[in-house]
Amino acid sequence: MDESIAIKIDHLTVAYDAKPVLWDISIEFKKQRLTAVIGPNGAGKSTLIKTMLSFIQPINGSISFFLENETASPYKAVKNKIAYVPQNTTVDWDFPATVLDVVLMGRYGHLGWMKRPGKKDKEIAKQMLLKVGLPTFASRQISQLSGGQRQRVFLARALAQEADVYIMDEPLAGVDMKTERIIMKLLKGLVEKGKTVIVVHHDLQTVGDYFDDVVLINQEVIAQGTVADAFTKKAIDQTYHQDRNLGEGEG
Questions:
Q1: Which one in 84, 108, 124, 229 has a CA-CA gap of 20 to 30 Å to 236?
Q2: Domains and CATH numbers, the chain
Q3: Percentages of the chain per state (helix, strand, coil), in multiples of 5
């Protein structure tokens, strides 16, 4: 097995109501790389992420994680080593919780059964709020924050988990340029520290500046590899301008 691989997806097919959303997908996500997953609306990007995280069960194929001793593991065995940042628009922001409460959720995987976060956990959470530029927001209600601030709080929660792999669904969608720069600086810093970062991304103009690798999908894999090799005009045209008739899915 190639030791550079963090996640290997083999012949994955996912369907909603018997209509394929992803068809025979095979992808290798490399360790210590910042990878973009791109494609048009309905291409199956969010479905891919949710299937990787076992929120959705495929009808065929496998997903293996190579995070411990280079042996293949299912998601359940390594879930504490994988941090997830969902789409901003999919979260109910009206729930009563402070910013610190939300960031502390990232520490739950480190706690024993029924244990509450301790002093160390709270210090780590506050450090992560400092990293995302919100050190004075700990006591605020999450519902009082702007969209960009909420996105940074969810990133702080993921950072507090101290994971090996970070999977993010559209973390830059709807944020201002200041927040975008903060997020990308943090993601690149994670990769420099040996982490693996996978991002569902929408802005084709920034792929070359922001990412090491790219996966282009439109229900099927169109291209994958380094940005220099895979992010070509031909691949982009095939991804965004070729009719797909497999089914209609999300993201």
A1: 84
A2: 1-78+164-250 (3.40.50.300), 91-162 (no CATH)
A3: 40, 30, 35
